[in-house]
Design goal:
heterodimer, B: alpha+beta, Thrombin, subunit H, Pdz3 Domain, six-stranded antiparallel β-barrel
């Protein structure tokens, strides 16, 4: 049997519409011909997928007001959407370009600049203070904990300076440390929604 | 408070009371609160976007701890509250599929013997066995929760576990995730990894956890056995999985996989893996979970009405999506009732 003839009757083969003799001949051909075998498998898979497809039909009133609805949606989608930052910058620009604001424009810009510089300097000072004090105090406690976990730490039995070395993975006290983040107490929950897939089909 | 005791019932309850108190007293020293913190570093500024708290427990005197992977997921630093102090721990490995993480306390240059819980055998559990979960609910002290085993399940809702889990009637609260599930002898038989509804919890069996943390200790990550087969479960007449009417049929054979080399064909009915009978997909998942990469594995399949033995060497799961090769069985087309089988979208490319 040649390939063209075999490929014409794949559909009949999968639906058992062939005579037993023809079916045996086709299957014999499939055993010998890789190209036909691949084609036949693809067709079978396609049919399986088509069988899963739903036939969808719109509601009866869908076409009643179709054109009006269509134009309404089209006009909404064609309207340009202006992002919030564009609107904000536009608003500020409008205020500053007003006649009465001409004099104050430079004063306002200078004030903003000074405020930012002072803020950054203040943040830097606080950062270094907290890191210096906090790390030293915490390291002392952790070293005690690691060397003798049974003994409770006290302010009088701090180890010597050479014992204060920390390892990379030890937690370091810092800005916004654990206390500032709201703790999340963990317990994974299993959803009660129905299974979207089944354990019946797995790959391993 | 005075309690009136009546006959034998009171003595029975008293015995339970003593047992639970005894298990709790013997176990509590080895159960700790685990903290995990994720940091964002922006220049000099460190932000703490999350601080997660769960429960963990020591499994040996070397300071190895088990907890739920969701407690320490994506954590950049981790510590435990132990003996009233904050002790740093490092994450040796975590497995999100089984929701298990292995940690170890940081104690360089010291040989601290940590208290630890003895590990039991989760296969000995039966439906109705009494179990105790100990954990830290919210910011409270460690608390025991008593329940009974309700079953062993591999799927609940939209969650499919990688191996069967113990379902117990324990009302757990947030913070108790990762706590040990103890039997009446005080041995760990599971790890509480999830809660379901109000009063059900799911625990990873300790026998499965052993496999995962042994892999982590040996290879740094869990090893997933892979043979390269896609299977589908067929049940006749709405039969329950695992019954005589259900069977597992090979649907896909992946190229360049051990199964393709061993001669598996689409349409083969899987009967046995090793000595384990296969009647449903859960049997396959449970058997494959415990296989080690590199081990020889014997399969028995039904092809053309005759049993056939096939052997292969278990490989590790490929990181890339494998290609499906379609093989035609020896023209013994199976005549199963027409039942559409959903094919995962990832395999339809």
């Amino acid at each position: 049997m040649d390939c063209k003839k075999a490929q014409r009757v794949f559909d009949d083969l999968s639906h058992d519409r062939l005579s037993p003799e023809d079916a045996v001949a086709i299957r014999q051909h499939l055993a010998d011909c890789t190209d036909c075998r691949v084609l036949q498998q693809r067709e079978a898979r396609l049919q399986r997928l088509l069988a899963l497809k739903r036939y969808e039909r719109p509601a009866p009133q869908y076409f009643d007001n179709f054109l009006t609805e269509f134009h309404k949606r089209l006009s909404v989608e064609l309207q340009p959407s202006v992002p919030w930052w564009d609107r904000m910058i536009g608003g500020i620009d409008e205020i500053l370009s007003a006649e009465s604001m001409q004099v104050w424009r430079y004063a306002l810009a200078s004030a903003l600049g000074v405020t930012m510089i002072v803020g950054l300097m203040w943040t830097g000072v606080r950062d270094s203070d907290e890191t210096n004090d906090g790390t030293a105090a915490f390291t002392a406690n952790s070293s005690v904990a690691l060397l003798s976990p049974i003994a409770a730490p006290s302010s009088t039995d701090l180890p010597a300076d050479d014992q204060l070395a920390t390892t990379d993975t030890q937690p370091v006290l810092m800005r916004g440390d654990a206390e500032s983040a709201t703790p999340q107490y963990v317990l994974d929950r299993i959803s009660v929604t129905p299974a979207s897939y089944d354990v019946a089909s797995v790959h391993f | 408070m005075s309690v009136t005791t009546v006959g034998r019932g009171a003595s029975f309850l008293e015995n339970i009371d003593k047992e639970v108190c005894s298990v709790y007293e013997h176990s509590k020293a080895a159960i700790v609160k685990v903290h995990a913190q994720r940091l964002l570093q922006i220049g000099n500024l460190s932000l703490v976007p999350s601080h997660r708290i769960g429960t963990g427990f020591f499994i040996d005197p070397q300071g190895h701890l088990l907890t739920a992977a969701t407690v320490v997921a994506e954590a950049s630093s981790c510590w435990i509250d132990w003996n009233g102090q904050r002790t740093a721990v490092r994450i040796l490995g975590r497995d999100l599929q089984t929701n298990l993480a292995l940690l170890q306390i940081e104690a360089p240059g010291t040989n601290i013997a940590t208290p630890f819980l003895p590990l039991g055998n989760s296969d000995e559990l039966r439906v109705g066995s009494m179990v105790i979960v100990i954990g830290f609910p919210y910011d409270l002290a460690s608390s025991p929760v008593v329940g009974v085993v309700g079953g062993v399940e591999i799927q609940r809702g939209n969650r499919v576990f990688s191996t069967s889990h113990i379902r117990a009637s324990c009302h757990l609260s947030p913070g108790q995730g990762g706590g040990p599930l103890l039997n009446s002898r005080g041995e760990v038989v599971g790890i509480a990894v999830a809660a379901h509804m109000e009063d059900q919890c799911y625990a990873l069996p300790i026998n499965a956890a052993r496999k995962v943390y042994s892999d982590i200790l040996q290879f740094g990550q869990p090893q997933r056995a892979w043979v390269g087969l896609g299977i589908a479960e067929h049940r006749q007449g709405g039969a329950q999985p695992g019954t005589e009417q259900s069977r597992v049929i090979i649907q896909q054979v992946y190229s360049n996989a051990p199964a393709a080399d061993a001669g598996f064909c689409e349409g083969d009915v899987l009967k046995r893996i090793g000595t384990n009978e296969v009647r449903c997909s859960a049997d396959v998942l449970n058997t494959m979970f415990f296989q080690h990469v590199g081990d020889r594995l014997d399969f028995t399949v039904l092809r053309g009405g005759q049993e056939k033995s096939l052997s292969l060497i278990v490989a590790t799961q490929p990181t890339e999506e494998p290609v499906v090769v379609h093989t035609v069985p020896e023209f013994n087309f199976f005549k199963f009732p027409p039942r559409p089988v959903a094919i995962p979208a990832s395999h339809e490319q």
